[in-house]
């Protein structure tokens, strides 16, 4: 049976770890040729070799999404070496956990770093691949969060919550602007997913994980693989009339 993403070329940012790695592997399983991008080139390579080891098609490149010129150059390189990109997953993201009520300079540095990756990075990569996506009626999948809607009580930066609200706003506004080109723009909103992003806080403060679990009807933390199905769905032909939406993959966190 052909995969849901057959004949697509899919770019995934932050594909060297966690959710991005799982999405890259899942997309390849569905038949896409995957371009794994990460600022840590070795991890992007490792994701690509996992895919190739499973018989899939993959390429890996080093890209820091905060470097706008590098994003533009990367899109040109991928167009010539791989082909026309038809799926973009804006997944690369960071978090910092210093409070806004703490040292003002520390918080401001966090704010700048978070916005540079979680918002400017999303814009840089989207603009870089926009001509290809518009030409090919492509799909964009942005990675939002529970924090696209609410803040959470575990230590989490105000800047992170602000950035993820921004990702949802960007998703809606871009969907509105690109609808006429047949480009669908949607987001996935993960709940607490066990990845290196939060490994330190999970290990140091299990009681904080419990705060999450008490608020999660499915009663467990998520794994990167829990995000793969929604990400495949949104990139596939199945949701042909869905744009500007977010699919929450949060174990039901936002229902209570
Ligand atoms: N883990 C969670 O609980 C959770 C929940 C909601 C949303 N998210 C979001 O999911 C996405 C992936 O997070 P994760 O948990 O897999 O994190 P992760 O830390 O495991 O992976 C993030 C990857 O992004 C890469 N990256 C970071 N900055 C980059 C940059 N400037 N340019 C290119 N690559 C860069 C890292 O090298 C890493 O490989 C993020 O956008 C995150 O905000 C995660």
Q: Give the spatial strand order of the biggest sheet.
A: 3-2-1-4-5-6-7
Total DSSP E strands: 7
| Cofactors, ions and other ligands in the entry | nicotinamide-adenine-dinucleotide
In N-to-C order, the SSE pattern is EHEHEHEHEHEHHHE
The N- to C-terminal Cα distance equals: 39 Å
CATH class: Alpha Beta
CATH homologous superfamily classification: NAD(P)-binding Rossmann-like Domain
Q: What does this entry look like structurally?
A:
With 256 residues, this protein is α/β, with parallel strands linked by helices. It has a single domain (9-255), classed as NAD(P)-binding Rossmann-like Domain (Rossmann fold), CATH 3.40.50. It is 46% helix and 14% strand. The chain contains eight helices and seven strands, in the order E-H-E-H-E-H-E-H-E-H-E-H-H-H-E. The chain has a seven-stranded parallel beta sheet, with helices on both faces. Helix 1 (18-29) runs parallel beside helix 2 (41-53), helix 3 packs parallel to helix 4 (104-135) and helix 4 (104-135) packs parallel to helix 5 (158-178). The mean pLDDT is 97. Bound molecules: nicotinamide-adenine-dinucleotide. The site of nicotinamide-adenine-dinucleotide has 30 residues, from helix 1 and helix 4. Nicotinamide-adenine-dinucleotide binds at residues 13-14, 16-20, 38-40, 43, 63-66, 91-94, 117, 121, 143, 145, 190, 192-193, 195-198.
Please sum up the structure shown.
With 256 residues, this protein is α/β, with parallel strands linked by helices. It is built from eight helices and seven strands; from the N terminus they run βαβαβαβαβαβαααβ. Helix 4 packs parallel to helix 5.
């Amino acid at each position: 049976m052909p995969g849901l993403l057959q004949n697509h070329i899919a770019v995934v940012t932050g594909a060297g770890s966690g959710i991005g790695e799982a999405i890259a592997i899942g997309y390849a399983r569905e038949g896409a040729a995957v371009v794994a991008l990460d600022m840590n080139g070795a991890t992007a390579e490792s994701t690509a070799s996992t895919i190739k080891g499973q018989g899939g098609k993959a390429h890996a490149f080093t890209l820091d999404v905060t470097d706008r010129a590098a994003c533009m150059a990367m899109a040109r390189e991928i167009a010539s070496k791989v082909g026309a990109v038809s799926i973009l997953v804006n997944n690369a993201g960071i978090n910092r956990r210093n409070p806004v009520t703490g040292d003002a300079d520390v918080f401001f540095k966090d704010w700048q770093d978070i916005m540079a990756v979680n918002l400017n990075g999303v814009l840089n990569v989207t603009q870089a691949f926009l001509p290809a996506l518009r030409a090919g009626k492509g799909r964009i999948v942005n990675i939002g969060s529970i924090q696209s809607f609410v803040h959470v009580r575990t230590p989490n930066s105000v800047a992170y919550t602000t950035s993820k609200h921004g990702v949802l706003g960007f998703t809606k506004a871009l969907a509105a602007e690109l609808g006429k080109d047949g480009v669908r723009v949607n987001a996935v909103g993960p709940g607490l997913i066990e990845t290196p992003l939060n490994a330190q806080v999970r290990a140091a403060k299990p009681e904080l994980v419990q705060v999450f679990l008490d608020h999660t009807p499915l009663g467990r933390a998520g794994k990167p693989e829990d995000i793969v199905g929604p990400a495949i769905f949104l990139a596939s032909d199945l949701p042909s009339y869905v744009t500007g939406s977010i699919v929450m993959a949060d174990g039901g966190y936002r229902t209570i």
